[in-house]
Amino acid sequence: MTKEEQYQSLLPQVQGLLSGESDPIANMANLVAILHQEMGFWWTGFYRVEEEEEEELVLGPFQGPIACTHIAYGRGVCGTAWKEKRTVVVPDVEQFPGHIACSALSKSEIVVPVWHKNKITAVLDIDSKELGTFDDIDRKYLEQMAGLVYGPLKDIWFAAGCFWGAQKFFKRIEGVDFTEVGFANGLVDNPSYEQVYTDTTGHAECVHVRYNPSVVSLEKLAELYFKVIDPLSLNKQGEDEGTRYRTGVFYADDNDVTILKEVFVNVMRELGVDSIPVELLPLSCFYRAEDFHQDYLDKNPNGYCHIKFPVE
Hints:
Layout: H1 3-18, H2 24-39, E1 43-49, E2 56-63, E3 70-72, H3 76-84, E4 88-90, E5 108-116, E6 119-128, H4 136-146, E7 154-160, H5 163-171, E8 176-184, H6 193-197, E9 204-211, H7 218-227, E10 236-237, E11 240-241, E12 247-251, H8 257-271, E13 278-282, E14 286-288, H9 296-299
């Protein structure tokens, strides 16, 4: 069985194990246990962001040998993942600047942020005694599993023109736990922003939204999406023009199609048209954009955006 097949088999078990439990510490403990047992990791655990500490991670539920109790913001692999708000994969910890050597036996590492209400509240840290253990397959599935700590979450992807404003818009919605911007449904693997900008990759600028369906419905998210785009404009939103700025909703769960189609039909009925140039397609690929583009309008409040805030 390949590693991906192992994760594919394990994911439904994790979903079942954590479903119905609202206590995040309990879910962290069970997630650690099943990952450690089924995947055979050497060290598996969480470091939590304590509100009263703010600039420090504190050891949470874990399995494996004793570990560092406190890790400062930006220190080591865990602190870096927290500071940079992204998953960090390290093939050789000895080559990672500022590595914290809790054990000389640790050779490679992956750290995955845990998001809740658009804040990192913990990181999932996994270590191996072998070099080069972790890769993008681990990242993909561990991010999904870490996203279950606060309850069952779902994913949807919105292409709404320039992704800077789209991310800012969706981050403000109650029930959205995590957002990131990137490039979707194109032909080039892991493209740069500069490549996508040429309109030759087939990718659309897109915001990945992870949400709690018990707080905000997919129907509501889709209805709000149509409030911030011009659904009659082809490959153009505001001053931004090109196929990379095309509009579309991309889904990973086929059960979402019926809900989304109904929203699309209602929009066309309100506009009095039989079709709109807004794609409704399964997600074929999504690549995270460079850190520069993540939360861009939070870092650059005067940056250009075709979405005019506040949006009712």
